[in-house]
Amino acid sequence: MRSDVRILVIDDEEDHARAMAECLEKVGYQCIAATEGKEGLRVIKRGGIDVVVTDLVMKDVDGMEVLEAVRERLPDAQVIFITGHGTVEAAVAAMQKGATTFIQKPINIHQLRVEVDEAVRKQVLMRSNPQRVTQVEEGCGSQGIIGNSTKMQRIFSITRQIAPTSATALIIGESGTGKELIARAIHYNSPRKAQPFVVINSAAIPEGLLESELFGHERGAFTGAFSQRKGKFEHAHRGTLFLDEIGDMPLSTQAKLLRVIEDGKVVRVGSNEPFSVDVRIIAATNQDLEALIREGRFREDLYFRLNVVCLKLPPLRERQEDKSLLIDAFVKEYSRVYGKKITSITPEARRRLLNYSWPGNVRELKNCIESMVVLTSDSTIGVEDIPGHIALEEGQEEKGALVGMSIAEMEKELIKNTLAAVGGNRGASAKILGIGERTLYRKLDQYGLK
Questions:
Q1: Neighbours of 320 (CB within 10 A)
Q2: CB-CB contact of 101 with 78 (8 Å)
Q3: Predicted TM-score (pTM) of this structure
């Protein structure tokens, strides 16, 4: 799946270089391990590298020289720095000069793979639409969020405003709208970005274990507690804790969470000794918390503590002008991931995708495009590649809607809806409709669609 992505790992400690390369090769990447900076520069000079993972401090060539060489020779390549605790400031400065991100030692294999996956995703998006990536970075800090609609631009604006602060934020939106992406964007644009971003899903953890996951526990605190364990708050110290599905948190845990927010102190399960933590909290939910408060299922005082800044993410059905951007980005991304040479999507297939309601939002659209890319045997995605339930809905909608309309009325409505779907872009509308732009302009005059 990732076999066409080439990664260069540079570290003058040979064991470290080999270990990082091996852990990335195990998930399908092609890796070249360079055990000194000069060797890495020679590989960069030859080209053909997508991502560079390099130690920041090396004996012969430092990471900044590697970054400069990449920017000169491989402008599309992403650079991830490996840094010790004492060089975090230098790594942040490197990000300001174009590095993608950095990872602190000791290396966590899972984090390394996640950061490389994110760098590859960013590169795919950059190559498909450089202007869009610039807008995404300005709004969200390279978190892969795509959107040009007024509602998403408003979300990007709030994200930029609150990121530099430590204000608690509440993100509300339907499942699949990208709540965690926005939370990550806030974190990685904040002064805490060098520290952990820790995620916990309140709905995914049994009630009896949730407090231990959040606050940790002492040895012997309960059956099976054979040793002391740090909770998510400790892991997120000086970083950000993302509390997903906060509406599903039990009332007893809500009370303890409120105390931590108010006092900044945590008590492990089975202990009486509090200790201080410095954690920014971002919570998210797809539920109506005010309704839960009225039902007695959510604490009003906790709601006010969390709702310092509220971001309400729009569902995809309210972001019609973003759909084409998302479709194109996902087609190109998965074409690369699965080694397919898909050059286009037919106007009728695009129209079907634009008209579908997407109850699962961006997540559903992304999964749908991945399925279409995997299953198509052609270089062009057509209606036959669209999953059955989407094609069925389209057919059901059309069956009664067109009865009683003249051909001219149908054509006028189709042109009007297509223009609305792509935010008034006439070039894109003509492409979807399968007509020339001059023909479209003539029909706009004919039907008075100015």
A1: 16
A2: no
A3: 0.59
Token pair 């270990």 in the structure block, residue: 19
Q: Express each pLDDT in 33-78 by its tens digit.
A: 999 999 999 999 988 899 999 998 888 888 889 998 998 888 778 8
Tokens of residue 374, six digits? 């995997």
Q: Among residues 327, 407, 353, which one has the least CA distance to residue 128?
A: 327
Q: How far apart are CA 279 and CA 230, in angstroms?
A: 14
Nearest to 285 by CA among 206, 203, 362: 203
User: Which residues span the domain enclosing 111?
Assistant: 6-128
Q: Is 1 inside any structural domain?
A: no
Count of the separate structural domains present in the chain: 3
**What distance lies between CA 250 and its chain's CA centroid?**
28
User: Which residues are registered as beta bridge partners of 285?
Assistant: 172
Residues 212 and 282 in one domain: yes
Among candidate residues 100, 128, 156, the one where a domain is terminated: 128
Helices (H), 376-436: 388-401, 407-421, 426-433
Cis status of the peptide bond prior to 106, with omega within 30 of 0: yes
Q: Are residues 157 and 286 in the same domain?
A: yes
Residues 187 and 116 reside in one and the same domain: no
Same domain, 239 and 280: yes
